[in-house]
Predict the 3D structure of the following.
Amino acid sequence: MKVWKLLCPDAPAAVSAKNGRASSALRSHTWGSVLVLAGSLLMLCCTAPVPARAQFRVGVLIQEMERAQSQAIKGMLAELRKSGYQERKNIVLETRNAKGNRAALPPAVSELVGQKVDVIFTTGTSATRAAITATKATPIVFIHPANPIALGLVKPGSKGSENVTGVAAYSAETRDKRLTLLREIVPGLNKIAIFFDANNQFSRENFRDAEASAKKAGVQVSGYGIKSAEELRATLGGLVAERGVAIFHVADDLVESESDFLFETARKKKLPTMFNEESWAIRGALAGYGPNYFEMGRQAARLIDRIIKGQKPETLPLERASKFDLTLNYRTATFIGLRFSNDLLKKADKVIR
């Protein structure tokens, strides 16, 4: 009778608790029918299928579509397909590419929020920060080569923050591994030159961390805090090639904006260069060691799938990139007169020839 009382609280009691029988045959028949009806209604409520969404919408926000971003999106789509999503059938990607213009990111993400996408996928600092600034309601899943906690994108802890979670590649172990590989690439390495934006707190912290790792490994450090592209070019131009010296890159937007000039200058001065991603080795660095963006995209897709199925971003642990690749540029090595050992070539995931 509790069921009926829930459905109709004003109904009178019909069955005697004392003798367990209805007071009349008519009343017994009536309440029996009611119980059958109530049970049928509850059965119907419990077994009715949940209406399926025709399409889920994933907003993709990027500052610039380069190889890394393209690989990340391909990885994300590949993993979503494995989870049963089909593009333009039950899932749609709304991509916004700022084409290198940071000022275009805020209006782009506002447009995605206005379209009521189910989740926003971002790559890199600028796009992720723009998304976080724009919304506290729409879930955000990022992939990031640097430290999202140090950048203030998420709070310290093992899980995401508010509406944000994602995959990050930065760690002390990765930085130390990059330095270890550089020492293997450049026999007799005793000093590294590090360029960083002196106006950027994150860049300064990156430099200090790299400096500590180098000193722990017994490698000297020459730090160059620069404040403009012009100063960077002038400083690079004044470098003198020395035996056992190499340029060691830490994540820095200012330095990366002048990467082509840096690679050209380093080649002319016969200076080895170690950067933090495959894409830099493809563009001219001697070597790159960093996250595999295709795999990071796949990891992000698994987070997106869980969010679409109802989990909150703040309950999903931040993930570390699962795969890191070593890329060697054979052409750059030949140009500066350096030869990769056979053991090193076997370790490499990719060799640019």
User: Anything to note?
Assistant: The two ends are 80 Å apart (CA to CA). The first strand starts at residue 56 and ends at 62.
